Batch of 3 targets.
Target 1
Amino acid sequence: MKVKETAKKFTILYVLIGLIVLFSILNPVFFSIQNLTNIFVQQSYVIIAAIGLAFIMISGGMDLSVGYQMSLVGVITALAIMWWELPVPAAVLIGLAAGIVLGLINGVAAVYLKVHPLIITLGTMTIFQGVSYIISNSNPIFGLPDSFKYLGQGYVLGIPVSVILMVLIAAAASIILNKTYFGRYVYALGSNEEAAHLAGVNVRFMKICVFMISSFFVAISAIILVARAGSATSATGVGTEFTCMTAAVLGGVSFKGGAGKVWGVITGVLILGVLSSGMQIIGLGTYPQYVAKGLVLLAAVGFDTYQKSGKVKK
Amino acid sequence: MENILSLKNITKLYPGVKALNNFSIDFRPGEVHALLGENGAGKSTLIKVISGAVAPDEGEIVFKGNSYKKMTPAISRKEGIEVIYQEFNLVDTLSAAENICLGEKHGRFVDFAYMEKKAADIFRQFHIDIDPGTPVERLSTAHKQIVEISKAISKNCDLLIMDEPSAPLTVNEVGAMFEIVRALKAKGITIIYISHRMDEIFNIADRVTVMRDGEFVETLDVDKTDRNQLIRLMVGRELSGNYPQPTKPSGEELFRIENVYGNGDEDVSFTLHRGEILGLAGLVGAGRTELARLLYGADKMEKGRLYLEGQEIHISNTSDAIREGIGLIPEDRKEQGCFLEQTIEWNIAFNTIKQFSRQGFVNDKKVEAAAQKYQDILRIKTPSIQQLVKNLSGGNQQKVVIAKTLAAQSKVIIFDEPTRGIDVGAKQEIYELMCSLAEEGIGIIMISSDMEELLGMSQRILVMAEGRIQGELERSEFNQETVLKYASVG
């Protein structure tokens, strides 16, 4: 029984390892340090945003506006450097602050309009999109300085800066969720909001906090992405929300809330990354990759439900 | 044909459990036959075998002289077996008449006149005043149940199975339902009646069968048995069957509330003494749960003052209440009381998790120690405190909810329907626990719709109706009629 449960807990890891083995057999080029490192570096910004979204999902909410938050934060940060000619650290701080404000907007709207966050963020997503394009005037912002690009392209002791940031954030998120009472409150909100309320949790405050934390991570993710690209456009980061959602669900974050682990989210993102890279290497283009990603997601959730309903029957 | 239905040597295995073990039982035509047993005794499985929802592994079912290896839902319905489950099977947006005639074909098009006439005929038989055209969602719980019953009768059933029909009803409504059950019996319909409430069985049933752990224990004529015997048979061990009583409270004031308004309640004042169990009686909707939520800070108090141990306290949210030492065991343990997907340990420590933390970090040792301590005190039956709460029985889940409140060192605990839906053995344990808490000097406010339990446990009873306190009874004045008289004021 114990063994079986542990085995089930790590199913998602086996899937990742299985995919790596599969692609390595199909084309040995896949299994090179170079390629595996690439996957990791490419996915680091997605992992950071996905961890942010996971906070919201664990608390029982949802955020569709992740992509346009990234777009808006990217544009604002780039503007701060290029138009206002602020030093890079100040511009980054402004970008992060802008991100947190977007989270605050989402959180306050969700709490006071008393509508499911899915709908709220459907609305704010559209607003953020509009604002982002108004600010950028649909033009890309080029010529970001090297000191800024360093965040997305630089190395410290041979390790990419983005990977270092990702590891730090994953560690911080994991500690918050597992070791602090705040983390328990997040799980409690997602498991049973009414019980949390009766247990003395300030539900409104918590919801707003969770949105702000998530948006903070998303803003970091946006800055890394823009720094890697070397330029910002209003299209930067758009669509990331669905990648994040797919990865989170793959990694065992419950859609109803109350369950999920940081390592699961990371594994989920890496599975998607390995699929992309592996299929590219064996010569399958972007569109077959979409089909494969969709199938993997359906297989994962189907397997999960099948196991659960199997239990009920017993 | 002496028996309308006989089950012979039925065995039903689920992985790891014998839900029914070589079980035989007979039902006579036109009787009200009660099934009694603790949770997990096999009552639900028995109903499912009869209605055809599950097939037995062994045994024979004889209905109206025909023998079956197993029933199927289609056969049982065709032969005249209907089941009314605890959860209503009604389409909320359709009218009462449409629900009653659901699944029936009459003519080529929907014939509203026919349906309404049919529904009205049935309602008239029972002297019930429901407009057949009313959408079900606008009916009261009691009326919804009448629609359920009418639906079953309209199929011309001979055997009606009622699974805890009184659970959602108030005292008056239960009385009305009994009238219907008697009328059905007079028409020769056999009724299998399942209930946890002993007084109902003595009120309505002709015979009662006790089951325990999937086995048949005994079938008795109701007028030849008594409460204590039934409990003994059901639990399989001697239980006092009496309500434990704490030593007489000192009379020292612990918690005083003055002129509280809010949540539909008006001008509520009373004093709770140290070590006292104060009962709050009233019909559903009288404002008792609403009052509990006000005192606990779960809903906003418009006006009023609270004094704990002589000091005025201000409670504007639930965390204030927990800090001041007021605890609430909410009425719906699954929806409000616990986190089913989390572990026992996690649940027990949750109300006080801040106190078990330093600089925001949870001290796992303190959490484990507290969980272990309250698991022992409350005798929560589980192999490990790492078990998920959803895997526990109702009684043990309730104990987890209580442990959560105890861990917060409450001085006043409000128990809202503490024994709803849990079995006799666990009920007794919860009564004993309440007494020992009272003896430690904790003040207890107990809300219960089970009149017997309320009269048995309380030292004093306040009766509420329409959001106000209508009367106060000392233990020497306790009786059901007086309580009901105050409860139906207005």
Note: The longest strand of chain B covers residues 17-27.
Target 2
Amino acid sequence: MLLLERRPVDSALMRWASPVLALVLTVITGFVLFVAMGKDPVEGLTFFFITPVSDLIGVAELGLKMAPLLLCAAGLTVCYRAKLWNIGAEGHFLMGALGASVMAVQLVDVSGFWVLPLVLIAGILAGALWAAIAAGLKTHLNCNEILTTIMLNYIALNLLLYAVHGPLKDPYGFGFPQSVMFADSALLPDLIAGTRLHLGLAFGLLAAVSVWVLFARSFIGFQLNVVGQDHRAAAFAGFSARRLTWFAFLVGGATAGLAGASEVTGPIGQLVPQVSPGYGYTAIIVVFLGRMHALGIIAASALLALTFIGGEMLQIAMNMPKAITGLFQGLLLFYLLTCDAFIHYRVRLKPPATQPTPKLAAAATQET
Amino acid sequence: MSAPLRLKLENIVKEYPGCRANDGIDLTVESGEIHALLGENGAGKSTLMKVIYGVVQPDEGRMFWNGHPVRVDSPARARAMGIGMVFQHFSLFETLTVAENIALGLPAGEARDRRQLDQRIREVSERYGMALDPRRYVSTLSVGERQRVEIIRCLIQETTLLILDEPTSVLTPQEVMDLFATLRQLAREGCSILFISHKLEEIRSLCQNATVLRQGRVSGDCRPAEVSAEDIARLMVGDDTPISTRVPAAEAGDVLLEVRNLGWKSRDPFGTSLKDVSVDLKQGEIVGIAGVAGNGQDELLKALSGEIRVDRGSMDLGGLGIGGLSPHQRRKLGVAIVPEERLGRGAVPGMSLAENALLTASDQGLVDRGLIRFGRVRTFCREVIRRFDVRCNGEDSTARSLSGGNLQKYIIGREALQNPRLLVASHPTWGVDVGSAVAIHEALVQLRDEGASILLISEDLDELFQLCSRIGALCDGRLSPLVPTTDLTIEQLGQWMAGEFESAEASHAAA
């Protein structure tokens, strides 16, 4: 019989080996899947993992996809360290995109250095506002944040769809559900000329560094860790769980909102319904894969950005369905959670327990 | 001796990673014998119990049951053989009745006939003088009554060896006498009892034989009635550890803490509400609060620390009302708290000792404009470790890795180094080894001599009588009068712990 036995000390090796192991298992499963579908597995995996980053344009595209993932993941890290399971980065992201677009559409004929900051701040505020709803529901009505944030995601999506089909729709857009193109002064500058890589990636990296500083040096980061690890010790020390909850949610909302704003002011340049391919959800995988650590989430966001591009590559080159991206992301999270169990537990082989024979037990008691 | 020994253990060895918990233990228990198993925390008592009860398997050694070699591979097997165990922390469902709780532990066939089971519970409980209604809900039972449920649960399965793990720590002195009467009757009828405790006087009055463990080995066997408590303690701790603290009397100063008619209604239906609690605490004195666990001690501590806001009454610290202040604001005014739970409240288990210093000592210059000054945190932490002799691998050890006594020394030291004016300590030496307990007592006395007021909440009456200048008892959230220790008998305190102080209060008020 196989037994999962709690380790006396959590395995430090498994803590970092687990993401690597999960990636290896994902690749192996991908291999098997390609074979099962009658495709050449080596070619498939090459298209998925290697071809996308084989030139500068590819790497720039990777950075482009990393930016929103990294921003969302940085904010979620703050929440998850405090064990606040905010699943709402997707909603914050969409609201950020919507808020920035509302501002950008008002300023479409204006030019000036202050236009872009104003647009971005509108996005940040919109994302934070959306997170504030979930925070308020949690601190004042004790609502489970997992449920409220998921539901708020759908509301945010429908608000965005309403906006692009209604008030924000470009009147000269031939009826397409999209806003007008933003003014140049509302667009993020490119990081590398000739590519689509824009300043958003710098925001993402800055957010990751901020998260690192927050948890490595600051007292509020320490308080968030204490609330997450041991809420009774936090209450004893007098750390206000309510204030920390608000802080974490507002940071989570602001960064995801900035991600949304950077997306519409970056590569897209207008508000469209499909502004997010699920960045907010994928960021959850990024946080866990990156071990809630700044360096880890930078590496993990690069990997998951690759799954988006690789998925597109497979659709184009090998005629595979769009679901391939979600499939690989799901495999990765599934294997990661499985491997994570081995941080705290180890497998032990145990001989099947022999049932006590009543006869022997009775004999033992009678002979007193 | 014609009858074989009820239980015989030979050379039991159990090794955990990094620790040899049992290192060649021999133990014999005769039928009808009350046998004490003594030892400090970490001496290997619990591991040995788990071996006997089949929770863990020994790495080496043999076990004989009524003369037959046996292998106990599960608690179910142990129960089938006739071994019953009452753990220190009861495993009862509060929302079920007594009978339902007992039925849970029985084989399916016996559990089904409820009427017959009720009958058996009544028979057993009456026979051994442990009155208990099988239809009552466990949530309505006192701690002593809950213990009876656990014992009856064992007896109903025809147990011939009953293991009790520190059974008296949750009882009033009177309840202890009742329990002992029951145990003596059981022993007369041939049931063997293995009694784990560290209260030496109880063992001297109850047990025929005692086995003392130290660091995983048997350090001695004795007949407790024939040797002094001092001698037994020596066997437990070895030769080089001081056994008790000498507490010189102190001169109390002005009143520091004035608590008036505190009232707080528990939100938890199974919790305890505070009713009309009043305490005066002078500078330079230690006041003790006795009481059976769960009678409002934790609530009183939380009310003083600011973790809960009371509904009624006032709290003044040096003339300043602190009732509306947060824990952090109170700490700034010199209130230090040592909670009952060391791991998971007083300290975060997975964090290092240095990080745990930040939990309450952040105002000692350890945080500057929101950023942690790690250098100062380490210095502070090392100072606590040095001054209070905390045995650990430096300030980076996790709180979880320390023994109970060492972690407690660290927590007390963390508070003491902040020069508190008021220290509220709950069960500071509970489950702590004798050496650490002495060190903790000395730290408390030293704080007192430096002029701090100390409120000591404890179940250990010896500790209270030793350290405190005045003592009272909490029962069901009400506080008895606080009277000078010299005027108080242990019987009187026992009655207060059971809630009999209405008249005393009246006469006290009249006086």
Note: Chain A has a mean pLDDT of 89.
Target 3
Amino acid sequence: MGAASDEIVVKVRDLVVGFGDRTVLDGLSLDLRRGEVLGLVGGSGSGKSVLLRTIIGLISRRAGKVEVFGVDLAGVDDAERHATERRWGVLYQQGALFSSLSVAENVKFPMREYLDLPETLMTEVAMAKLEMVGLAPDDAEKLPSELSGGMVKRAALARALALDPEIVFLDEPTSGLDPITAGDFDSLIETLKSTLGLTVFMVTHDLDSLYTVCTRIAALADGRIVAEGPISAMLAAEHPWVKAYFHGKRAELGAGLPEETRIG
Amino acid sequence: MSAPLLSRSMSGQRVELSAVGSWTAAHAEEADRLVAAQAPETGFRSLVVNVAGVTALDTFGAWLIERLARSTAAPGGETEIVGVPERFRGLFAKVHEANREVPHARPRPGIVDRIANIFGRFEDDALSFLAVLGALGAALGRVAVRPRTFRLTSAVHHLDRVAWQAVPIILLITFLIGGIIAQQGIFHFRRFGADDYVVDLVGILILREIGVLIVAIMVAGRSGSSYTAEIGAMKMREEIDALRTMGLDPVEILILPRIVALVIGLPVLTFLGSMAALYGGELVAWLYGGMSPAVFLARLKQAISIMHFEVGMWKAPFMALVIGVVSCAEGLRVGGSAESLGLKTTTSVVKSIFLVIVLDGVFAVFFASIGM
């Protein structure tokens, strides 16, 4: 179910991104295919978040091409860019919930801006989304400052999914969550992927996520993708960083999972 | 993508509602109307919603179909959703669980509570002001016993920001105010042939009241607001808690140096500001009133005494203390949201300007009664 098709939704070619005299991404190329869950791994400071932010247009690039749904966002007018932005959802690392709005209002915000819907329907769908991500109805009226770290993540995911996007970009979705919640989160992504035909681009450090939900993994080191493929390809990769990552102590524990829980 | 449709068909005891087309966010408004138009079924026990013809579905559509099933259900019964394509099964299962529980409404305060709240807030304000003042006194006491613990670097840094960097703008504004007072004085006094008294007006008014008041209001807007914003942002990012758990006193580290910088900086700025205002007055008296600088200075010597200067200067450190304590107290009361940071910064400036003026009035009464 939900196997990746050949349609490429995000296409990155020879991307160069740098700040000042430092080059973070140097000739990076990567594809994201419809229906897959791509996990992007890399050391701290290797430019994972920079890549994500470049794809969604928050950081400008020096060279190369980034196409989302076949559209290069650098070369289009505002109307087309907004139309494209509507088709993706982003979960930021810190949640980035609007602190002056309640949780339910946060989820309703994109609906209000982009869709012309009756208030009751928006409320009901927002509540449904909140329940889908595992928040209680009573949490809906809370302000972001009243939520715990894990609840912020869930509320932010609900907001990212508010418009039923085709792609979701997740920046370390399971960091700061306890293992059980992180597992729930993984299965939630799995469900959403199969029901909505969601394509997921996930920056993560969580080996469990990599083993259980990611259909494909890309490893980022030295400013480019050094290994790409299912978990088996990662385990076989020769690059020293990838080797250290997937054959470290913690990875070996993860690899001890029973075979059927793995997807890769 | 085809628009959503809902049709009703009947076969014997069974009513079937068939949903076809694309039930997605883009068509949600139409779909919402279709669903709302369906009345609950009373006569028939077996009603089903058939979704086999749905071509595209997202959470909006799935929820609308789920709502249709719930609203058309006979009392006690449940409408079944049939013909669910395999790929939509998970989504229907998800929305089937949604909105079952009604959230508890948060109680909204009544009018009496709201009035009580205003007094409560006033009490809170006064208490937090006193709390910071008290904590400041305690920190000052500790530092007095062990002077080495005083954060000199920090105090000098803040002195640079609130005093040194404020010098140009303070000089400019007080210079202009001094000029305006002199111009108005000459303009109106000339009718009585009393232009010479403009020097008394400018000298006494500036040294006693206007100099210190303008500078204090400027500093409250310029530095008080930044104190509140800084401390508020630190509070939001748990930096204050971090200090506390390291066994350090935030008042001693963050607030004391800031207030010390203000208490030193404001009198200096007041002095500079008063001089600039007198200079402005003198210049206007010369260019506009035709009074030569030598005459102006000679009259000024007669008109004012050191006492007027002292009155103005005595007020400055107290005003600095009020501005510092209010802005730091408001900073510590910032909550978690960006909105509360803005609100507290506004409150801090409004409150410190208000208190500065009240304090000025209290001083006026005090100096009058001791004959200064």
Note: The longest strand of chain B covers residues 46-57.
